Amino acid sequence: MRNKILFLPLLICSLFFSACSDDDVVDRIRTISDIPVSVNKTVDYLPINAFNFPIETSINLRAELEKELGTDEAINQVEEIELDDIDIVLVSADDQNNFDFVDSVTLSVRKDGLDVMQVASLDNVPKGVERISLNTTDAYLDDYLSAEDLKLIVQFTSTEDANNITVTLDMQFDAKVNPSL
After folding, report:
1. Sequence-ordered list of residues with C-beta below 8 angstroms from that of 21, at least 6 positions apart, any chain
2. What b/e readout covers 22-41, taking b as 16+ CB neighbours within 10 angstroms?
3. What predicted TM-score, i.e. pTM, was given to this entire model?
4. DSSP state string for 86-142
5. Partners of 106 in beta bridges
6. How many CA atoms lie less than 13 Å away from 102 in the CB half-sphere?
């Protein structure tokens, strides 16, 4: 009789823990790929520079993710946000037809209270192109998500002056939604 009394709580505990296995949590995590975000930026003057010349603009990544999720309630369940792709498109310039005036470009993000983090770059910009694709890092932007005013910093190393430049940053982000958060 005593063995049966000890066996019953052990059986109940094993059933409870087997019902909440890690596989169930992993199965509920979903990945959202290719979340589109576009930003237009106009710069009056980009001087010749041997060092990176920063151009800063703001995006509300949180709002873009909320729009993709269809609700703001799930935003706290988002994790592992990363920049998957970025193209910079030359929309117009007074004295340039393509990106021949640029040698290299980097893209970083900044939020008050956090370090600037580089998320993409291209060291040798091809000649004769109006669209450049940057190489992204595998850095997660989770800590930067809470900022409604996330700063994007584009840094060009240029070989010529350029006036009245308008560029579009076409970005795609990937993220995971984990309902257990």
Report:
1. none
2. eeeeeeeeeeeeebebeeeb
3. 0.79
4. EEEEEEE-SS-SSGGGEEEEEEEEE-TTS--EEEEEESSPPTT-SEEEPEE-----G
5. 121, 155
6. 31
Residue (of 170, 165, 171) closest to 98 by Cα position: 165
Q: Categorize the per-residue pLDDT at 8 as very low, low, confident or very high, splitting at 50, 70 and 90.
A: low
Residue 144: half-sphere exposure toward Cβ, Cα within 13 Å = 25
Token pair of 28 as six digits: 């509920």
Q: Per residue in 37-63, pLDDT tens?
A: 999 999 888 888 766 678 888 888 888
79, 175 contact by CB (below 8 A): yes
Dist. CA 132–CA 114, nearest whole Å? 28
Answer yes or no: are the C-beta atoms of 91 and 168 closer than 8 Å.
Answer: yes
